[in-house]
Amino acid sequence: MNVVALAGGTGGAKLAAGLQEIVGAGLTVIANGADDVEALGVHVSPDPDLCTYWLCGEIDEERGWGIRGDGFTVFERLVELGAPEWFGLSDRDLATCLERRRRLDRGDRPTTIAADLARSLGARATVLPMCDEPVRTRVRTAAGWRGLQEFLVLEGADTAIEAVALDGIEEAAVGPEAAAALERADAIVIGPSNPVISIGPILAVAGMKAAIAASPAPVVAVSPFVAGAVVKGPTEPFMRAAGLEPSAAGIAATYGDVAGGLIVDAADPGPDPDVGDLAVCRLDTLMEGEAGRRRVAEATLDFAAVLAS
Ligand code: GDP
């Protein structure tokens, strides 16, 4: 079975790990690339790399990000030598980004690099960034425009968001690997990631929505709201800033034109979202441990099969 999952670095990445348990190499993850940042002389691609670490079992599950048990020896030395310290990278994470830098410098495409890095680290699924062109999320607060990572890391994401922009999105286009994966998919899953800064950039890439619409596969989105609240991260302020209600109803409104079905958490308050023909399925969507991820992934594929029938 061939499955495509759209993902950021946390909710969607966890679901991708569950999907990989079921379909193995049949899974292609299209990860958000608008979080990318240049730091410490390397090119950091947080969401594709977090997806890779989830898929190859290296993620620090307790923390929800980064590589389990990894040290910061190189970063600490770099700071001692005078390097900027606002963006820390652990040793193995830095190695991933160094290798990405080397490959970019010799002219390789970001898509090929991400897929190769994931394969080298043992992921069975294919990991693709959303496009090869550089796209960067910027956030405007009362202090002015900031890059997304500066906003998240330096401002702790707790300043009021006035506007969000995707620099470079006009030049971005869906690549041949992502287009081919969507074309041959039996199911397309929009992971429970931030709809504005994780899934939003992916769907904004020229040709992405058209490739999803052209695919015969059913499209199922999973709400990132568990019992009416996000598990972690700034999903609510970003949804408010984008004029979306921070709830499953807001998720339904966001994906109503792309998805055929929405999975809403069983404990979510309020009635089922009612948006056009969007079918709603309720289940416990909290993905705790490997069993939890697999359970939600299985239910997602079951729902997709119902939509396809
Ligand atoms: P980022 O790239 O690290 O910002 O993370 P994502 O955008 O991929 O994911 C953030 C979202 O994941 C948050 O809105 C969380 O509520 C959601 N999330 C995290 N774990 C779970 C889970 O187990 N179940 C569900 N339904 N959502 C989750």
Report on the architecture of this protein.
The protein has 2 domains: 3-134 and 176-308, CofD-like domains (Rossmann fold); 136-169, no CATH class. It has 12 helices and 14 strands. It is α/β, with parallel strands linked by helices. The strands form 4 sheets. A 7-stranded parallel β-sheet has the order 5-2-1-9-10-13-14, sandwiched between helices. The protein has a 3-stranded antiparallel β-sheet with strand order 7-6-8. α1 (11-23) runs parallel beside α2, α1 (11-23) crosses α12 (289-308) and α4 runs antiparallel to α5. α1 (11-23) links the parallel β1 and β2. 39% of the residues lie in helices and 18% in strands.
Order of helices and strands: EHEEEHHHHEEEHEHEHHEEEHHEEH
Assign the CATH architecture of the largest domain.
Answer: 3-Layer(aba) Sandwich
* Tertiary shape: globular
Q: Which assembly state applies to the chains in this document?
A: single chain
List keywords for this structure.
single chain; 309 residues; alpha/beta; Rossmann fold; 2 domains; seven-stranded parallel sheet; three-stranded antiparallel sheet; 12 helices; globular; binds guanosine-5'-diphosphate
